[in-house]
Each structure stands twice: as C-alpha cells, then as structure tokens.
Amino acid sequence: MAREEQESGLGATPLPLIPALLHLPPRLLVIKCKAAVLWEIKKPFSIEEVEVAAPKAHEVRIKMVATGVCRSDDHVVSGNFATPLPVIAGHEAAGIVESIGEGVTTVKPGDKVIPLFTPQCGKCNVCKHPEGNFCVKNDLSMPRGTMQDGTTRFTCKGKSINHFLSTSTFSQYTVVDEISVVKIDAAAPLDKVCLIGCGFTTGYGSAVKVAKVTPGSTCVVFGLGGVGLSVVMGCKAAGAARIIGVDINKDKYAKAKQLGATECISPQDFKKPIHEVLKEMSGGGVDFSFEVIGRLDTMEAALASCHEAYGVSVIVGVPPDSQNLSMNPMLLLSGRTWKGAVFGGFKSKDSVPKLVTDFMAKKFSLDPLITHVLPFEKINEAFDLLRSGKSIRTVLTF
Ligand code: COD
Ligand code: ZN
Ligand code: ZN
C-alpha cells in the first residue's frame, strides 16, 4: 500500500497497482481519490472518484486538508464565472505537499502549503513591478482551465476534467504549478488559515494595501459578507476612527460591529440615495469607500460617497458578466481616486506566508469568519448555506 493511502484513510489509492511500480517514489504514481466534479452549470456537485496524475516538472501535488467555499465558486455553478467544464472548482484552501515534480525548489513533500489562485511567477512585468500583483500567468482573466503547460492532471470516467484558477481545491488531491503554491508555517492550523487563500486576504488587503487606509480616517464598507467583514478588519487594523457598514441584511450588523464597524446602516431605511446619507454622516464624504457586493449601482454609490477632493474608492466585488458602468468624469476630476484589485493587491507568494505569520502572532482572528465546518462530502450543503445567506464561510475538511 502506498504511503498516501495509509496516511489519508480516505480511500485514496495509487494507480496502477503494479508491484514493479510500487517501490517508485510517490511522485510517479497516479492517485485515485474523491473530488467534487461540476459537470454542468446550475447542477449540484457530484462526488466522483477521479485520477490525479503525478506532478510534471515544476509542479506540485497537494493532499488537501481544508478548503473554504467562496462566492466565486458559486459564480461558477451559476454560470456567472465562465470557466471550462467539467471542472473541479475550489480555490481557498490549505494542504500538505504529497510529491513534487522535477526542478521544484520552493516546497518539498510534507510542507504545509496554501495554493495561490493568483500566481507569482516572479519574472513577468507585473511581478517585477513593486505594486502589481496580477501576474500574467493567472488563469482568472481568460480561464483556460489547465496547468501552465495547457494540459490537465484530472480524469474521471475516462474524461479529462478541467482545473479552476490553477488551484482546484475541491479534491482530496490536486496538482498545481510551483508558481501557484507557497509554503507556510509548519504550526499553522490549516482549517483556519485556508481563508488566507482568498476571502480574508482579498478584503483585508483591499483596506491595508490597495486603499492604504490611514489612522483616524472614516471608511465605509458596502457589503458585510465574509470579504466585506475582512475589509472591516483591515480598516480597523490600519487605525480607522470610523467604519460604517452598509448592508440590506441587518443580521450582518452584529458581527460587523464585533470586528470593528462603528455603525451599520441599510439603504432601505432612507428616502435619500445612500451616498447622500453617507456624505452627511461624514461631513462631505468619507476618506475611503469599498464596494464588496459586486453590483454596478453600489459601485457608483461607493464612489460618490467618498470625498470629492481626496476620497479613495476601491472596487472589490466583480459584477455578473462583463457589465459596464457609465459615470460622470467630474466625479474623478475633483480629486477622487477609483481603484480595484484582486487578492487585496498582495503579491501572493511573498505575502501569504507573512499573513500566516501575522495570524499565528494573533494580529487578526479568522474565527469570526468561519460559521460552519463540514466534511468535504457535504459540499452541496455548504453551497446551500452560502446561497441562503446563513453562512459567512463554511470550511470543508478532508
Ligand atoms: N446593498 C447593500 N448590501 C447588499 C446589497 C445591496 N444592494 N446586495 C447584497 N448586499 C449584501 C448582502 O446582504 C451580503 O451581506 C453582502 O452584500 C455580500 O456578501 P456575500 O456573502 O454574498 O459575499 P462575499 O463577502 O463572500 O464576497 C463578495 C464579493 C463580491 C467580494 C465576491 O463575490 C467577489 O466578487 N470577490 C472578488 C473577486 C475576485 O477576486 N475573485 C477571484 C477569487 S474570489
Ligand atoms: Zn508573474
Ligand atoms: Zn474566492
């Protein structure tokens, strides 16, 4: 029996089970394991037995330990996020390196790692730029659903299954390119730090890195889901004096206040447009505003609610299918700054291990974001919880 089968207890079996191959290092073996396959949009995930090929040169095979369920995964199911099907989705996770391909130098078997849905190749113009983080090797802007070499490592029922955002974490084992994974602290609890792989970092970084929130400032956060709450945490960590939460669901307010929101309001409680309300509340406009919902109307409202002469507005949410905004340029000519970024503007390989270290040093907590923990097999329940608004984050454990 190969090592990974003994350790996992999850029924993962190496293939082929030919005695002559069994003494070979695990990196040369195909692994048979369970994964959640999305065959068609608007259908539930089906737990299937899949074959996970060995990592090729500069690739890493990971045994998954925990994965979060993010809104973007649900956008794949709904068809709002177009990516090749059938697919193994999931992109917010943590695991342990099972084997490595030739030439891999930054991780080794046994290392705790976080897969990176925004890679950091270190060589492209973006990676070399001090501020850029949207590495040209990303599979986000025009998803191919493959490894960097254009092929896949998953098969199911004789069919090739696509990757998602270079990570595909809804599987007991996955294969990623070395540029899409990073080693983290060996003591890190993987069932918590998995959130650093997307939701937490996206929100927190939007405040501390993209907006660069300043001490004593006034901030407004539109949308108090898991990402919006992480923006609230970032604003607080950066020393904001006032943090106003905006959400139509008042059930979100208690947690937002626990994490640092000083007041919470619903646009539905006012006759005036919400940006007018916020301008009045802040004496002319807030210093920093964040759109963390993914709607065009709230993007406009967030921009208009920051101060006309020095306000900074950050778009965090992605609107469904590529809709366009039309806006009056005067909103910017007076001095506003309008920005956006993925993954909180952080260079992934550089920043993720540091964020894990900060978490271990108790600089922030991830517990308030984790409302549910379920076994991986209950993935469809986790999506029901997300769609009904009952969960902030569900962590699936393997
Ligand atoms: N006005 C005020 N609040 C609203 C409105 C409205 N019109 N509509 C919805 N809301 C509230 C909801 O009640 C909810 O509390 C919140 O907005 C949205 O929260 P969630 O839980 O649905 O979503 P999150 O926080 O998990 O994520 C939202 C994003 C928009 C950030 C996410 O979907 C996204 O687009 N992520 C960033 C894109 C990206 O980087 N993608 C790559 C990997 S994720
Ligand atoms: Zn790059
Ligand atoms: Zn995500």
Can you give a write-up of this model?
The chain has 398 residues and is of the alpha/beta class. It contains 13 helices and 18 strands. The two termini are 20 Å apart. A hairpin with a 2-residue loop joins β7 and β8. Strands 4, 5, 6, 9, 10, 17 and 18 form a 7-stranded mixed sheet that branches. The chain has a 6-stranded parallel sheet with strand order 13-12-11-14-15-16, sandwiched between helices. It has a 5-stranded antiparallel sheet with strand order 1-2-3-7-8, with no helix packed on it. The protein is globular and about 65 Å long. Among the domains are: 200-344, Rossmann fold (3-Layer(aba) Sandwich); 368-398, no CATH class. It has helices spanning 3-8, 19-22, 71-78, 125-128, 190-193, 199-211, 226-237, 253-259, 274-281, 296-305, 330-333, 348-360, 379-387; strands at residues 13-15, 30-37, 46-52, 59-68, 92-100, 112-115, 154-156, 159-161, 173-177, 181-183, 218-222, 242-246, 263-265, 288-291, 312-315, 337-340, 370-375, 393-397. The model is unreliable at 1-10 (pLDDT under 50). α6 packs across α7 (226-237) and α9 packs parallel to α10 (296-305). The chain binds dephospho coenzyme A and zinc ion (ZN) (2 copies). Residues 46-396 form the Enoyl reductase (ER) domain. InterPro entries: ADH-like_C, ADH-like_N, ADH_Zn_CS, ER, GroES-like_sf, NAD(P)-bd_dom_sf. One of its GO terms (cellular component) is cytosol.
